[in-house]
Structure formats: C-alpha cells, structure tokens
C-alpha cells in the first residue's frame, strides 16, 4: 500500500522493528484520518507483499472470502465511513483508537458463494482496466495536442501548399478585449432573465446567478463567442450556452476579419501553455489587458489559419468525446458499486 499516494505523505518512522507484513489479499485498515475518510480507509493488498507501520491493522481473509470484493465494497466513501464511525475514538495524536476485534464485528453485504464474489470482482476489474485505458488515451491525446501546438506555432511543421512567411503583428491590432460588467452582490439574483457567467462556471462552480438588467450589447456573450478568463484560472473558451451577461473577470474577444476564430482559440491555448510552463504550472495567474494587447503574434494568411484551426479543433473534439466516454464509465462504476452491494 503506497501511503504517500493514498494519504499525501509518509508516516513511516526511522525503525521498522514493529512493522507488520502484508501479504497478497490481506485486508488493511489505515487508522489515520483523511478529509474524505475521517475514520480511516479500508483497502485490500492486490499487489506484492510489503510491510506497514503500526498505524495499519492487517486482517487475514478466511477461505470463504475472495478479499478483492472487500476492496470494491469499501470504495464507497459513505460505506466505509458509516462502517467505521461507530468504532472510532480519536487519540491525542489524531490516530484511531480502534480495537481490531471491534472492527471485525461489523457486517458487510456480499454474496456468500465465493464464485459469485469472483464474478463481481472480475466484472469490476474489467471496468477498472477500461477506465484506466480511457484515461491513458486522454493523456496521450493531450500530449499530442501540446506537441501539435508547439510545432505548428513555431512553424517547424507546416501543411503542404503553404510557404508564405508569417506576418508579425500585435494582438491589439487583431482583436478587441472587452471587459465584462462588475456586479455588486445585491445585483446577483437567484433567478432572472439573463444568467451571469463567472470564471468559476467554466471550471468547477455549477451555481449560477441571474440579472434582469438591460445592458449595452457588448456586455452580452452568445453561443460561438470567443471568451477569455483572465483572473485566477485563465484561458480561452468558445461559449456554447445561451445568451449570458459575462462577469468583469472575463473578456469577450472581438476579432478582426484577418484573425480566424479557431486559429485565435488555439493561439491563446498555446500561449496559456507557455505561461503555465514559465510559472511551474500554477493556474493562479492574472493576465492584464495591456500585456495581452501588446503580445506579439506571427500570423499566417487566413487560409493557413483555417487549416491549422480545423486540425486542432478536430483533436479537441476527440479529447472531449474520450473525456465524455470516461465520465460515462466512471458513472457506470458508481452505479454498479451501489447496486451490487445493497
């Protein structure tokens, strides 16, 4: 059991004299609180044998148990917390004062026949492998996209038929960066005519505010508009929702005719990657309008822009489709874990 992977840090002491040996198939209870699992976690060792500190309890499965099924049974945070909560008394060092005899008294709902246990584990194992393979595909596609961005924008790769030199321009000559409207808290309504698009709505925040204000047209974003979040979490987006009022920390990027939208989106994405690489991957970056307008760009003609933009858009669609497949597989596993163990 890799405690750094599972817990974020190592609890190992300088001596391993009192450590326990974990064999393949052993059930291990980590007596240390985590944010999601404040009463510890239960895992089954499905790898090679190893040793663990005294913070871990080791339980040997009986012959009537195919122990990997316990691993899946306790993959539900709710299930493991409900099982362990009545047993736990936290010690002064925040370790779990739990007697092993009490841990083993609890009931789990699994098939009594070991063949059925193996069948369930086999099904979930296959699903896990499919999920892992799908995630690997996403990672490979994202790496390929990064390589394409670099090679296409530094012109080390060019499409057949294009040889004209790219023209050096400033972004401020090619696009207008229009700030959204700043809102006071009492102007954000629970319901109303227009949703108010904030930075968090692009990423992790599903909560929406609304407004009934009628504003100049520049403050609205409609489907297909190119937007750029410039505060904290930053980057370009094509808006695909209904008409919204966009917040102050978002720019609407109005492009001149010589600057193709799909190419512009990919330029901003390549620029975002460069910024992240220069700041050790931190996404907490504020991009100023002045810096953006003065940023230099090498611009091919409109036709080459369209060719580059179309290729990268196809890669984006493939990544999105694969991500959607991954989400569906993860949801399927969630339902199976709920329904197989009633």
What does this entry look like structurally?
This protein is an alpha+beta fold and 342 residues long. It has two domains: 108 residues, no CATH class; 133 residues, Adenine-n6-DNA-methyltransferase TaqI, Chain A, domain 2. The protein has nine helices and 15 strands. The strands form five sheets. It has a four-stranded antiparallel sheet. A hairpin with a 5-residue loop joins β11 and β12. α5 runs antiparallel to α9 and α7 crosses α9. The longest helix is centred in the middle third of the chain and has 40 residues. The radius of gyration is 27 Å and the shape is elongated. The relative contact order is 0.11.
Helix-strand makeup class: alpha+beta
Summed over residues and divided by their number, the pLDDT gives a mean of: 89
Helical content stands at 25-40%
Radius of gyration: 27 Å
Largest sheet: 4 strands, antiparallel
């Amino acid at each position: 059991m890799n405690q750094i992977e599972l817990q974020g840090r190592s609890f190992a002491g300088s001596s391993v004299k009192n450590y326990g040996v974990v064999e393949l198939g052993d059930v291990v209870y980590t007596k240390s609180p985590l944010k999601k699992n404040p009463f510890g976690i239960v895992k089954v060792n499905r790898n090679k044998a190893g040793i663990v500190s005294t913070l871990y309890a080791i339980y040997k499965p009986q012959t009537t148990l195919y122990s990997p099924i316990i691993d899946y049974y306790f993959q539900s945070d709710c299930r493991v917390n409900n099982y362990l909560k009545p047993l736990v008394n936290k010690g002064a060092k925040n370790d779990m004062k739990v007697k092993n005899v009490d841990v083993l008294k609890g009931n789990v709902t699994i098939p009594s026949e070991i063949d059925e246990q193996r069948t369930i584990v086999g099904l979930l194992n296959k699903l896990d492998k499919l999920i892992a393979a799908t995630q690997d595909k996403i990672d490979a596609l994202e790496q390929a996209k990064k390589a394409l961005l670099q090679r296409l924008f530094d012109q080390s790769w060019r499409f057949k038929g294009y040889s004209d030199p790219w023209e050096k321009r400033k972004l401020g000559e090619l696009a207008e960066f229009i700030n959204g409207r700043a809102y006071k808290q009492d102007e954000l309504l629970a319901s109303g005519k227009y949703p108010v698009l904030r930075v968090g709505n692009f990423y992790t925040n599903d909560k929406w505010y609304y407004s009934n204000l009628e504003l100049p047209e520049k403050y609205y974003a409609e489907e297909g508009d190119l937007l750029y979040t410039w505060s904290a979490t930053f980057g370009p987006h094509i808006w695909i929702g209904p008409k919204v009022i966009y917040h102050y920390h978002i720019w609407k990027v109005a492009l001149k005719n010589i600057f193709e939208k799909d190419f512009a989106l990919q330029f901003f994405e390549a620029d975002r990657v460069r910024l992240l690489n220069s700041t050790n991957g931190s996404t907490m970056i504020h991009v100023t309008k002045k810096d953006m307008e003065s940023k230099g760009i090498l611009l091919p003609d409109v036709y080459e822009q369209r060719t580059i933009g179309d290729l990268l858009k196809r890669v984006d669609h493939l990544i999105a489709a694969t991500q959607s497949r991954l989400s569906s597989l993860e949801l399927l596993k969630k339902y199976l874990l709920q329904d197989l163990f009633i």
